[in-house]
Amino acid sequence: MADAAPAADAAPPADAAPAADAAPPADAAPAADAAQGGDGEPPADRFVPHRLPLSLGVPLGGGEAWTAVWETRLDPGAPGAPAPRVYLLEHDVLYDRDGIYGDAHGEFGDNLARYALLSRGALQLCHALEFWPDIVHVHDWQSALVPLYLNVLEHRSPLARAASVLTIHNLGYQGWFNKGQLHTTGLGWDQFHRFCLEAYDSINLLKGGIYNATLVSTVSPRYAQEIQTWEGGEGLDGVLRDRGTDVIGILNGIDDSIWNPATDPHIAAPFSAEDLGGKRLCKAALQREMGLEERPDVPLLGLISRLATQKGIDILAGALDHILSLDVQLIVLGSGERWAEDLFSRISGASDRFRVYVGMNEGLAHRIEAGADLFLMPSRYEPCGLNQMYSQRYGTLPVVRAVGGLDDTVENNVTGFKFEEMSSSALGNTVAWAVHLYRADPAYFRSMQLRAMKKNFGWAQAARQYEALYRLAIARRTGRPF
């Protein structure tokens, strides 16, 4: 129940209570947070978690789970900016594990209990602190029980007035459980029906949250439309269509203090839209770092991704011969499905134009964004995506499939290149067009880079939209303007 929402495009940590009285997502730029107001800057030691002098009894599965409660603050990253409070629930039996959802043996069998404790515990903590929020903002299936608890279990408590917003970051993950575990949630069979938790005679937590939340949001306007279609709805398109205009897309932002080519400490030379000279130095340094021939004239392509079919890695594999035949260089950074790691590693060892780094390397990610000319994102679906925004900020034109947030943030032949069909040929042909433009009309290519770099992807606009969303949700819940 922090007053900052969990980071966008990520599930909340297993032992962190979901947001209550939430501001924009926790990775919002400090300036955006400051513009919305705050309660001042805490002492530095407030950033160190400390245990509160209370034990929290949380109803769970017919009994009570007793948790310790810790408090800390999020470092706002800028002097004078508000530092949101975060509360954490400590329960060693359910949370003291190496994985968040599972381990090498698979998903944990008690995940329903673990996330029911998270959701119910957040509301119990409100009672313990006598903190009565106007709004509770929850994320994905992991905290989707909160809107149900507010409607079913808290309707006679001071929490009854709290509106709820459920943000869907990825509809592909819904929280499916056997109906025999329903007692774990503390809810009765009267909530196990097609307009709540029941789906195909099983429990679907996200479905229950969608039907019970005051409003539902997603991380881009296009994704809000896609998830209401049969193709993009992951079986919940009808549920989302039932909510109609209650489903609202708000585009994620990026931290433009970290992703800033003028101040980035990870790259070889600074640059900006006013002076692109440093980008040429970054390209040469990246070619040397990755063992590629140092050629300023060759188009350098980058890809930073999970190596997974959702990210279109299979169609990239099918297009590689075509792409590399264009006399380009390609650098891939990421990890994921074993077949992709093995394939790219073999090609990297045999080709003088292709390099792969299996794993994650934050500094290298910045250097790829800074040094590449083009950036590939051939995703099957992409709720929002961040790298296409990082790329534009660094003058690296994205080549994307026109889905979700990619379609919302890239203007075709203006700040990047888009294709519709999910195929290797569509990707290869779009890369070929971008490479042709790079060579045949460098002045226009440069103008595209400058337009991309001047776009504003910071959090300020999203913060304003979240504030409007919260006001709408509160008005909807209470029947009066807020």
Q: What layout of secondary structure does this protein have?
A:
Layout: E1 4-5, E2 19-20, E3 23-25, H1 30-35, E4 50-60, E5 63-73, E6 85-90, H2 92-95, E7 102-103, E8 106-107, H3 111-129, E9 135-139, H4 145-152, E10 163-168, E11 176-177, H5 182-185, E12 198-199, E13 202-204, H6 205-212, E14 215-218, H7 221-226, H8 237-243, E15 247-249, H9 277-289, E16 300-304, H10 313-324, E17 329-334, H11 338-350, E18 354-358, H12 362-371, E19 374-377, H13 387-393, E20 397-401, H14 404-409, E21 417-419, H15 424-440, H16 442-453, H17 460-478
Parallel strand pairs: 1-3, 9-10, 10-14, 14-15, 16-17, 16-19, 17-18, 19-20, 20-21
Antiparallel strand pairs: 2-9, 4-5, 5-6, 7-8, 11-13, 12-13
Helix pairs in contact: 3-4, 4-6, 9-12, 10-15, 15-16
Q: Can you walk me through this structure?
A:
With 482 residues, the protein is α/β, with parallel strands linked by helices. It folds into 2 domains: 4-253 and 461-478, Rossmann fold, CATH 3.40.50; 277-453, 3-Layer(aba) Sandwich (Rossmann fold), CATH 3.40.50.2000. It is 35% helix and 19% strand. It is built from 17 helices and 21 strands. Helix 15 (424-440) packs across helix 16 (442-453). The radius of gyration is 24 Å and the shape is elongated.
Short recap of the structure:
With 482 residues, the protein is α/β, with parallel strands linked by helices. Helices cover 35% and strands 19% of the residues. It has 17 helices and 21 strands.
